[in-house]
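Molecular record:
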Amino acid sequence: MTGEPARVRQMWHLLEPLHAVLYYAPEAFEEAAALGYGTEERWTSYFAWRAAPLGAVDAPEVVRTFHSFAPAMVDRYVPAVWAAAGPDAVLVARLRAVDRSYRALFGDRVEGPQFAEAAALARRAAEAAGDGQVPHGMGHANSALPWPDAPHLTLWHAATLLREHRGDGHIAALAGAGLDPVESLVSFAAVGAARPEVFASRGWGEEEWGAARRRLQERGLLAADGTATEAGRELRAKVELRTDEEAAAPWRALGEEGRERLVELLGEPWLEVIGSGMLPGENTLGIGKA
């Protein structure tokens, strides 16, 4: 891939790990425990951290906006998470979790000029996503939150807004391709984005996964062994291209010089997050493989 789509995807790959520390950092689990959440698994805090910008929503709303999770899995956590702590308290705690996590990862550099410059550039890009927000989507919900004052928290908030804006566009692209949530995962696994076992984290049972495979086979998108046919690969490529196109406006607004400078500034923090080992090496986003 070349041109603008490649540059847009590069920015997602750089910013996604900076966002995802919230779901894996030890400091985030400590903050979740302080709210009253169990931390023997990550899903309780994951649903609370990520859904809080939507308010005290019910399970169907989370199913709709998160898209890839099986309804039965969401039902196990939502709305129960709001009984332990309301969304306002969760939002305060998640910024505290990011602050502590970033300071543990990057030390005093979070107070330095490079983080301040990166935060300013990322915020410019994120604010340019506003006109293209999907109503009631995750990007829209995060854009309604106040910007943090500290540069490293501004950077995290910008990364979050941009990834959720991209995610909303991705859901629209999947719907345009006629792929329901479980078919979206099956078709992504079929092009080698990650092993099917990795996608089991989204809670779909073997029967649901198998039924989706059969539907995709009937459409000529999957071979008998579960790998994508040429038509299946073409369809997924179109989905990813449309996703990149829907996510491009913030980076056009920032300009090539600003984007390249942000790439330069994010390189070292990105390497440190990846090198920390806290993030899974194989993930449902296909970063690093697809």
Notes: The chain has one domain: 8-275.
